[in-house]
Amino acid sequence: MLKILPEGTPNFEWNLDWDKIDHMLKVEFHCHTNASKDSLTKPEDLIRVARKKGIERLMITDHNSIAGAKAAALLDPELVIVGEEIMTTRGELLASFVQEEIPAGLSPQETLRRLKAQGAFISVSHPFDRFRNGAWHEEDLLEILPEVDAIEVFNARCMFPQFNRRAKWFAEKHNLPGTVGSDAHAAFEVGQALLVLEPFSTPEGLRQVLRNGIPQARLSSWLVHLVSRYASMRQANKTLPFS
Ligand SMILES: [Zn+2]
Hints:
Elements: E1 3-5, E2 25-31, H1 43-52, E3 57-63, H2 67-75, E4 80-87, E5 92-96, H3 108-117, E6 121-123, H4 138-144, E7 151-155, H5 161-173, E8 178-181, E9 193-197, H6 203-209, E10 214-218, H7 224-236
Parallel strand pairs: 1-10, 2-3, 3-4, 7-8
Antiparallel strand pairs: 2-9, 4-5, 5-6, 9-10
Bound molecules: zinc ion.
Zinc ion binds near residues 32, 85 and 125.
């Protein structure tokens, strides 16, 4: 079901009958702005590129911050859904329809409690990517499964496809729906992984249409990691010679 296109495949040359699915929404579940410490993307630039690529719902999920997403939502309220990628003590969670920012460093249980209290939609970012700080141990993930809505089964920034495959197997085994996301830290990466969904406007509406989503995803070049490394250095020390 999940079709993974090779790196470098041009945008939107997908084998979908776009006329038949014209009413559906192209949704990006995972991207960052300069409210994250490892991105330099201005909210207005992210919006411009997303619109240009035909993305119709953009969940902006900065690390432990909703400031960039809120700024973007003011600029394009139809497009932007405020989200947050939250570092818990056991791994990262990927939330959308977030109203109140959740700080990093809480337990998964407390983070989930706060997210559920505000009705947020909750996925788990790149759960088995061992190269990320936010990866989960399976036993910790099993504990929170009843509390999450979905698992991120494809992240375009995973360096090795087996990390994504394991997430997809895990979601299927536990009968959880999957989200896909570009995890864009630079604007050009946005839309690398989209889910085409029946229209929704609320978290509950999203839960209802998620299982029938059509994922269209391709891995990004490993070079994108240099972009975020550079962004981290720029953000950490504005006096570097190349700043
Ligand atoms: Zn991310």
